[in-house]
Amino acid sequence: MGQLLYSLGVRPGQTSHLSITLSNTGAQAETVGLSLEDLRVTPANTAFLPAGTLDSSNSSWITLPAAAVTVPAGSTKTLDLNIKVPAGATAGSHWSALIVQPQGAPSAPKAGVSVNTRYAVQLITTVPGGAAKVNFARPQLSRSGADVNLGVDLLNDGTASIVPEFRAEVYDAQGKLVAQAQAGKKRLYPGGGAHVDFKLGALAAARYTFVVLANDGVNPVMGARYTVNVGN
After folding, report:
1. What is the pLDDT of residues 94-103, one digit of tens each?
2. What is the DSSP letter of 44?
3. What stretches of 106-189 adopt beta strand conformation (E)?
4. For residue 19, what is the domain's CATH number?
5. N-terminal to C-terminal alpha carbon distance within the chain
6. How many whole angstroms separate alpha carbon 13 and alpha carbon 10?
7. Residue 61 phi, psi dihedral angles, 5° rounding
8. What is the pTM of this model?
């Protein structure tokens, strides 16, 4: 598989086309099944659900070229998807996952377990007018020796997906910046979210202000502030 996420800007009533390339580096032709499933991503887990389960699903908008295709050995196969956005589509992000699953026998069992590999390609369509709203929930502070870790659940209560970069800053009682950490980027789907951990290094026992920021470089920076007593 190549690219595992496609994001398109669309408008109500619009028809779009999306080409996805499958590659087969093996010595034999491979037949793969194609289907659509809904995708729910929360701080706790990622779940695949029957197509059309979620209100935010775009699975009914998407027409697949076939239920199965064969990719020649050492070659590629292009899938042409048709996306027809309903005239009454609501503003914001709608998404589903294209499931690509080899139809051959599973891999040889290891320790009594056979493995069926499948790939999920996220298909996101965003109708203008939606907005993300990031909420910061369930902050948890933990220590490993002198080192401090701050864990936070990031929830998107808006209607559009967002891919912010996360940063935490720590200030002492005098307002001096004493620590900071990045947690990379994560996509937050509407109605879902992600968990991030900030490894802040060694902090002496004291009272601190923790500031957590989410910045996607497009929307206003969103953040939360916590006053925390860090013990020994």
Report:
1. 999 999 999 8
2. S
3. 119-127, 134-144, 147-156, 165-171, 177-185
4. 2.60.40.10
5. 48
6. 9
7. -85, -20
8. 0.88
